[in-house]
Amino acid sequence: MTVETRTTIQLGDITEVEIECTKCHARIIWNPRDADHFIPLLCKKCDTPFFIRNSQEHRDLLQLLSLINTYSHTGNYHLRFSLGNPEATRSCPILTKE
Questions:
Q1: Integer Cα distance of 33 and 4 in angstroms
Q2: Does the N-terminal or the C-terminal CB of the chain have fewer CB atoms within 10 Å?
Q3: Residue 17 and residue 68 in contact, taking contact as beta carbons nearer than 8 Å
Q4: How far apart (Å, rounded) are the C-alpha atoms in residues 27 and 15?
Q5: How many helices (H) and strands (E) does the chain have?
Q6: Residue 89 in 3-state DSSP?
Q7: What pLDDT does 97 receive?
Q8: So what's the pLDDT on residue 85?
Q9: What is the DSSP annotation of 14-46?
Q10: Which pLDDT belongs to residue 47?
């Protein structure tokens, strides 16, 4: 017998989405349940550019936030994602039936 510890989340478990500036480490946090998502093109603290106006990356992030909201309420199935955590994997016990 083997025991395996896995961490999974459903889209409904996501309560915040965060973007962090790699220069000054300022963070912006969104609630994916909000109907309107404004994603700035620049860091509000140091003006480092995050996105190019109307870029595919900027549009994709807006769509991702919308999709998280849309698919977190589906009634016909559960969509889950496994989270990788090497530290948890190393520390979990493995039981083997011999």
A1: 32
A2: C
A3: yes
A4: 15
A5: 2, 4
A6: helix
A7: 43
A8: 66
A9: ---EEEE-TTT--EEEE-TTSS-----SB-TTT
A10: 95
Instruction: Identify the pLDDT of residue 30.
Output: 83
Strands 27-30 and 17-20: antiparallel
Which class for 93: exposed (0-12), middle (13-18), buried (19 or more C-beta within 10 A)?
exposed
Q: How far apart are CA 63 and CA 71, in angstroms?
A: 12
- pTM, entire model: 0.67
Mean pLDDT by 10 residues, the chain (98 residues): 83 88 91 81 93 92 87 80 65 42
Q: Which 3 state secondary structure label does DSSP give 62?
A: helix
- How many other C-beta atoms can be found within 10 angstroms of the C-beta atom of residue 81? 11
